[in-house]
């Protein structure tokens, strides 16, 4: 495994966050100043093709960025706040049940299960209510 692959895999694996290609490029460069953007983007593509990382769009809540996370992690659903971009990960039995049901219903052998849900986090619900009250008062 080449050095840039190892750097990127480690960053994706250890961040615990959902980083986009530009974030990863900046972090990788801090470790190896010789890395350039093209190499980083190309390496991400390869890691994805090899099934080591997943590419997510997370409902495109910040525009058209894509985010990367390791495949080593247990399957989970992403819950995205459409206002502040907060991301929660839902690890739960229902996801495994859904996988089993889909396989049974359609006779598919699933290799990837991805679920994304969008809405407003508790804090943004409060802010939205406040905004609506203010708008109504005007
Ligand atoms: Zn929010
Ligand atoms: Zn995730």
User: What CATH architecture of the largest domain would you give?
Assistant: Orthogonal Bundle
Percent helix = 40-55%
CATH topology of the largest domain: Arc Repressor Mutant, subunit A
- What hetero molecules are bound to the protein chains? zinc ion
Average pLDDT confidence is 91
Low-confidence stretches: none
Overall number of domains: 2
Radius of gyration: 18 Å
Major β-sheet strand ordering: 1-3-2
Name of the CATH class of the largest domain: Mainly Alpha
Order of helices and strands: HEHHEEEEHEH
Per DSSP E runs of 2 or more residues, the count of β-strands stands at 6
Strand content: 15-25%
Comma- or semicolon-separated keywords:
5 helices, Arc Repressor Mutant, subunit A, 6 strands, Dna Ligase, domain 1, flat, alpha+beta, 138 residues, binds zinc ion, 2 domains, single chain, three-stranded antiparallel beta sheet
Would you kindly provide a written description of the structure presented here, covering whatever features stand out?
It is a single chain. Helices cover 49% and strands 17% of the residues. It has 2 domains: 73 residues, Orthogonal Bundle (Arc Repressor Mutant, subunit A), CATH 1.10.10; 65 residues, 2-Layer Sandwich (Dna Ligase, domain 1), CATH 3.30.1490.190. The protein is α+β, with helices and mostly antiparallel strands and 138 residues long. α1 packs across α3 and α2 crosses α3. A hairpin with a 5-residue loop joins β4 and β5. The protein binds zinc ion (2 copies). One zinc ion binds next to loops.
């Amino acid at each position: 495994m080449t050095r840039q692959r190892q750097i990127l895999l480690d960053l994706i694996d250890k961040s615990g966050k959902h980083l986009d290609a530009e974030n990863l490029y900046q972090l990788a460069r801090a470790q190896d100043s010789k890395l350039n953007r093209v190499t980083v983007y190309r390496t991400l593509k390869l890691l994805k093709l090899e099934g080591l990382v997943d590419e997510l769009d997370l409902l495109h809540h910040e525009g058209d960025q894509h985010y990367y996370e390791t495949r080593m992690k247990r399957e989970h659903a992403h819950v995205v706040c459409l206002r502040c971009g907060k991301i929660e990960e839902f690890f739960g039995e229902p996801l495994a049940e859904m996988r089993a049901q889909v396989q049974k219903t359609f006779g598919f052998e699933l290799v990837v299960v991805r679920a994304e849900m969008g809405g407003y986090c508790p804090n943004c619900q409060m802010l939205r209510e406040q905004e609506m009250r203010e708008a109504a008062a005007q």
